[in-house]
Specification:
202 residues, alpha+beta, four-stranded antiparallel beta sheet, 3 helices
């Protein structure tokens, strides 16, 4: 009987120490993640109704065939905008602990108006002093949010790509998650990754 009690006590002691070690490691990763800086690197691969806007600086740069294609899409009640945000995560070199990002819930806003939310369900290890690029793919139907003429909608898309003389305030908030032995753990409140004006002034 005494031997059984001893073995049971030893088992729970070892289990407690094991979980304690995992928890301490997870806590260190969590604390390291809280010190990671996020910033927007660039906006790339901007497509409006299938038209690549990377070489378009102004509405007047569109070819007649492209305007016809956009006008047809608008007449059909659809004007999808697709682009990619590259967010860079930087774990400070002085951190000395590799942070681990399990997944990221994000919300994109334009002029403080929520446009779209999504989830990056991928693990990123963030060693100290090694910036990691995190692509965020955005796809939305402009006509679900805006009722404007074709020129205004094109200028809005160009503003998001940072090339048109129409300035818009774009912000991206995110809630990072880390995995623990007891389930996923997240920030209590979404963190602001970026808030900046896109588009250039005339």
């Amino acid at each position: 009987m005494a031997t059984e009690i001893y073995n049971t006590t030893r088992f729970f002691l070892v289990l407690t120490l094991l979980l304690g070690g995992l928890s301490c490691r997870t806590l260190r990763e969590w604390q390291a993640l809280r010190q990671v800086d996020f910033y927007l690197d660039r906006i790339d691969e901007v497509y409006l109704a299938g038209i690549n806007l990377s070489t378009i600086q102004h509405y007047e740069d569109l070819e007649a065939s492209q305007i016809a294609q956009l006008s047809l899409a608008l007449a059909q009640g659809t004007l999808p905008l697709r682009f990619r945000l590259y967010v860079v995560a930087v774990n400070p070199r002085e951190n000395r602990v590799t942070a681990r990002l399990e997944r990221l819930e994000w919300t994109l806003r334009l002029d403080e108006r929520p446009l779209l939310s999504g989830l990056i369900d991928r693990t990123y290890r963030l060693p100290p002093g090694e910036p990691q690029s995190i692509p965020v793919d955005i796809e939305l139907e402009l006509l679900d949010f805006f009722e404007k003429n074709l020129r205004d909608l094109v200028e809005l898309a160009l503003a998001l790509s940072g090339t048109e003389g129409v300035t818009k305030r774009v912000s991206l908030t995110a809630k990072p998650f880390v995995q623990t032995p007891f389930g996923p753990l997240s920030y209590p409140q979404p963190m602001l990754i970026l808030s900046r004006d896109v588009g250039t002034t005339p």
